[in-house]
Amino acid sequence: MSSYLAQEVHLARRHEEILSQRSELLQQMETYLGDKKTKKTWQTQAADAAHKRNAALLNDIEAAEKKLQERVYLLPHPDTVKLETLYWASIKEALPKWEQFLLGRAEVPIGFKKMKTTKQNISPAEEDSQK
Question: Which of 9, 30, 64, 117 is found 20 to 30 A from 24 (Cα to Cα)?
């Protein structure tokens, strides 16, 4: 009988060791799952923040692109700018010659002829108005 009792005591100790290990493993598993859930939550939040940031950047880029396209249409062609610059330079150069004439103090500058009004230059509508 004593062998049964010794065996029973041995089995009871082994049973308690197994329960202790089981409890420890359950606690480790809960900790692991909690950490995993926390990590997943953090990753989800980081992904959402990155998505919002990317969307804002995309909107900013699209707005900048739109402004640049509008600017392109507002700016005249370089050839037009060059012609305007040359035109105003020629006006500034010729202005002193024409200034007295434009003020009504002198005749047409030398090198420019007055256009004589002839019947060939006048259209029929203008002829009626002259009569």
Answer: 9
pTM: 0.42
The tokens 């969307």 sit on which residue? 55
pLDDT tens for the 131 residues of the chain, in order: 688 999 999 999 999 999 999 999 999 999 999 999 999 999 999 999 999 999 999 999 999 999 988 877 777 888 988 999 999 999 998 888 888 888 888 888 776 666 555 555 555 555 555 54
Cα dist. 38→24, 30, 31, 34, 109 in Å? 21, 12, 10, 6, 91
Check residue 104 and report its DSSP letter. T
Say how many C-beta atoms besides its own lie within 10 A of residue 88's C-beta: 10
Residue 93 in tokens: 């150069």
Q: Where are the alpha helices (DSSP H) in the chain?
A: 2-74, 78-102, 124-130
Kindly state the tokens that stand for 67.
């402004």
